[in-house]
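Readers outside the structure-tokenisation community will struggle with the description of the input data as it stands. I therefore recommend that a typical entry be quoted early in the introduction. An entry of this sort, consisting of the sequence and the corresponding backbone structure tokens, reads as follows:
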Amino acid sequence: MTTTPYDKLSPVLILDAIESLGYQCSGSLFALNSYENRVYQIGIENDAPIIAKFYRPLRWSDDAILEEHAFSIELASHEIGVIPPLAQPTGKTLHKYEGYRYAIFARQQGRPLELEDAEQLEWVGRFLGRLHALGATKPFTHRLSLTTKTYGEQPYRFLIENDFIPPELKQSYTTLLETLLIKIEECFQEVEDVRYIRVHGDCHASNILWSGAGPHIVDLDDCLMAPAIQDIWMLLPGGSAHETERQLNHILRGYCDFNDFNWREVSLISALRTLRMIHYSGWLAKRWEDPAFPINFPWFNTLSYWKEQITHLSEQLHLLNEGKGDWK
């Protein structure tokens, strides 16, 4: 990947790309919060604004992006609240302009999910139960599966091989990660009948919009094959044991109205949380030559950051060794 993947993505190019699809832009262009891709709200003459997502070059294959699009369109066709890409009359959803790949979406407004609201949590549970019921009907063939290797070993190796870990911490970090990866794999093996299905993959509260019609989930960019619990645990606050268990129970009460849930998967929460921590460090490292990342994540790759990571990952190892979920 080039060190400046978006250096040619100027406002003029963005508007020209949209107009190449037959839209007449008003000239309004507003960048939305996104680091992996570039996302913009674009004004359209005599019509509602649209959202354009320009995909990071070389990250996904065309087939993987189209599989994401097909999944969101399939969900929408079953009246499951997602924002699918807008298709051209030919049915095309992935577009190319001056070397960039992009898709366009209708603008969807909503308010944040209220994690303290039991009614909303149960509604989200019902929503995820329906999403997963459809997600289980067939697999992805071009997207990732969330495993110890893809979300743990591969980012860990990248960090080590590219000298991101400070020399004075490298031995401690390496020993800790090698132990963690073995323990995480044991956790997956201990859970019987772990079923990998198509999931959203990044289902935190900021990716759920709430309206009078209920929840809409956005940004399927990280959709992948994973256990159902992957789309549930990130909605848990990680606070007190009692509060986290209460919220989990509300979500699963709604979930089970529409789908069966393998309760053994709850014991994977600590393992999945640990994999996300490792994967997040690897993600930042892989993007570190993109000028936007040092500006927006100045705390990354400092000595204090890696010391904190060792502390937090050591806490996760303790939870895994004790065989406890994060709320116990």
